[in-house]
Amino acid sequence: MFFWLACAIETALLIIAFALAYLFRQPLFSDLHWSVLDLLLGIFASAPLCILFRWMLQSSLAPLVRIRRLLVAGLRPFFAPWSLVQLTFISILAGICEEVLFRSVIQGTLSANAGPFIALIIASALFGGAHLVTLAYAVVAAAIGAYFGVLWLLGGNLLIPITAHAAYDFAALVYFLRFWHPENSGE
């Protein structure tokens, strides 16, 4: 049940992206093209995020401990029963839907009107706000959103942040649910 709800929420973001793109006359997929090299770059670009996530799970910093406790109590019970196929699907769906909305539509529209730096800051802040579970979680998500935004700016292909986002989500979920144990962090 939760799997289908999560899929519906991600799909709703894509519908919002289509509506906003239409409203602001922003082309959605003009900067998305297939490239094996860009796919590999996206996968490679997920590695620093995976390292950051692993460090956050081991950190004793109070805001990160609160995030970890929230993930253990709130996230783990919902995602733990999911199969690898379901984790793969939701990761790919999140990568596509969130990056189309926050990079292509929001950052793309704002870039044309306010410049790339301001667009990157605003889109990243909105990305963080969309992940407002705790303030610290939103700040981390905003920084990750900025990372995805920079990948898009430097690579010029939406495939790079989509792939990085999906690969990171999948790796983080699998590690968190299948390999990491709360007792390893003193929880």
Q: Quick one: biggest sheet?
A: none
Catalogue the unreliable spans: none
Structural class label = mainly alpha
Radius of gyration: 16 Å
Separation of termini?
A: 28 Å
Order of helices and strands: HHHHHHH
The helical percent reads over 70%
**Quantity of strands, as a count:** 0
Annotation field: number of helices: 7
| Average of the residue pLDDT scores | 94
- Estimate what percentage of residues fall within beta strands: under 5%
Shape: globular
Summarize the structure.
This protein has 187 residues and is mainly α. The chain has helices spanning 2-24, 36-58, 62-79, 84-114, 116-130, 135-155, 159-179.
Describe the structure.
The chain is 81% helix and 0% strand. It has seven helices and no strands. Helix 1 runs parallel beside helix 4, helix 4 runs antiparallel to helix 7 and helix 6 runs antiparallel to helix 7. The model has no long low-confidence stretch (mean pLDDT 94).
Features:
187 residues, mainly alpha
Fold topology:
Elements: H1 2-24, H2 36-58, H3 62-79, H4 84-114, H5 116-130, H6 135-155, H7 159-179
Helix pairs in contact: 1-4, 2-7, 4-5, 4-6, 4-7, 5-6, 6-7
